[in-house]
Design goal:
Layout (H helix, E strand, L loop, with lengths): L4 E2 L16 E5 L2 E7 L7 E3 L4 E2 H6 L10 E5 L6 H11 L5 E15 L12 E18 L1 H11 L5 E6 L3 E4 L8 E6 L7 E3 L2 E2 L7 H4 L5 E2 L7 E3 L12 E4 L10 H4 L3 E10 L2 E4 L5 E4 L6 E8 L2 H12 L3 E7 L5 E7 L16
Antiparallel strand pairs: 1-3, 2-3, 2-7, 3-4, 4-5, 6-8, 7-8, 7-10, 9-11, 9-15, 12-13, 12-14, 16-20, 17-20, 18-19, 21-22
Length: 350
């Protein structure tokens, strides 16, 4: 059984430090392993006691996973000791949720400049076709993102962007198609080219990296959209899975139809659908006959989701669900007990 660990098992020096080989949630110098479990509302359980991550966070008065923003961590930000440094030096608060991710076509490479405080060479991100690396996605609260902005020198050393290059997949199968990332801003954080090529951090350690000689690249090769101002957790994903009254032709379709773009797509997600007897169904994740429904693409999730939240009310909670093909979409889960509600194996058809 996976056990909690402390910072001293993952020293921060030399940069970028070491990182656990699994997902974890970190608080007050201790990390708890996370394991994918799509039968839970959050999709993750905290070891060793098996608590749903959202319940674990709620017990500490913190935001659930759906209210956090995914930020790619390819340097030191996945190091537990660095997280404690952020708490002590920059006022980071709350639990840090770090989920391991497979990154295809993306690489952590050494940057052209050195860090002013210790002359170590920092990492930056570059597009490298054919390369596969393991990094982490930090699901950050708005406050935590503001701390990361200060740490990364947003606008000076790094810029905050939405990344469209490569492929970023979490260990529960979900693909993040618009992950936030800090990429180089200015020549000192552009990839260092040695003999015309960037140098992967995985190939050269910090001791040797400090003595590399080369020139800054003119581009990191990434396809990005710069982020202006503060992003919102509602920005991602831009898809919504509907299975009841919000389906095309359903009694509430008019609420969402004008908020969508493109044609709805039929899908079936894992879980069980129940008839509440009150004119609307109840979805619970996990094993079961599966739930048929539709995936809608929202033109503006940030505008659409408050409308839908108000319609669904307190009987449902919004989460990010993983479809069988890895697509991540918003959906609404029933929060109360289902008791002896009848199972709707063929879906909601009223």
């Amino acid at each position: 059984m996976a056990q909690p660990f402390t910072d001293d098992s993952h020293p921060a020096e030399p940069y970028p430090g070491t990182r656990p080989d699994h997902c974890f949630v970190h608080l007050d110098g201790t990390g708890w392993p996370l394991v994918p479990d799509l039968s839970l509302d959050s999709g993750w359980r905290v070891e060793p006691d098996g608590t749903d991550l959202d319940r674990w966070l709620a017990d500490r008065g913190e935001l659930p996973l759906a209210a956090r923003m995914p930020v790619l961590g390819y340097g030191s930000n996945a190091n537990p000791a660095k997280l404690t440094w952020l708490r002590e030096e920059l006022g980071l608060t709350g639990s840090a949720v770090l989920l391991r991710a497979r990154c295809e076509g993306l690489s952590a490479v050494w940057a052209a400049g050195l860090r002013a405080r210790d002359d170590q060479r920092p990492a930056t991100l570059a597009a490298l076709p054919g390369v596969v690396e393991e990094h982490s996605v930090w699901f950050a609260t708005p406050e935590q993102l503001r701390v990361l902005d200060r740490c990364e020198g947003r606008g000076l050393r790094y810029r905050l962007v939405r990344l469209h290059s490569g492929r970023v997949s979490l260990h529960h199968g979900g693909e993040i198609d618009s992950v936030l990332a800090y990429t180089g801003a200015g020549s000192k954080r552009m990839p260092l080219l040695v003999r015309g090529k960037p140098v992967r951090c995985a190939d050269v350690d910090q001791r040797r990296a400090r003595h590399l000689v080369g020139r800054p690249a003119t581009s990191d090769g990434l396809d990005v959209t710069p982020v202006h101002g503060e992003p919102s957790a509602d920005d991602w994903p831009d898809r919504l899975f509907v299975y009841g009254t919000l389906q095309p032709g359903g009694s509430a379709w008019h609420l969402v139809e004008h908020l969508c773009d493109g044609e709805p797509e039929r899908v079936r997600v894992p879980g069980t659908l129940f008839d509440t007897g009150h004119g609307h169904p109840a979805l619970r994740p996990g094993d079961g006959p599966g739930v048929p429904g539709w995936v809608l693409r929202l033109t503006s999730p940030e505008d659409a989701l408050p409308v839908l939240d108000d319609y669904e009310g307190d009987e449902y909670r919004r989460v990010r669900a993983v479809l069988p093909d890895g697509t991540v979409c918003w959906t609404y889960l029933w929060v109360a007990a289902v008791g002896d509600f009848p199972v709707l194996a063929d879906g909601w058809t009223r």
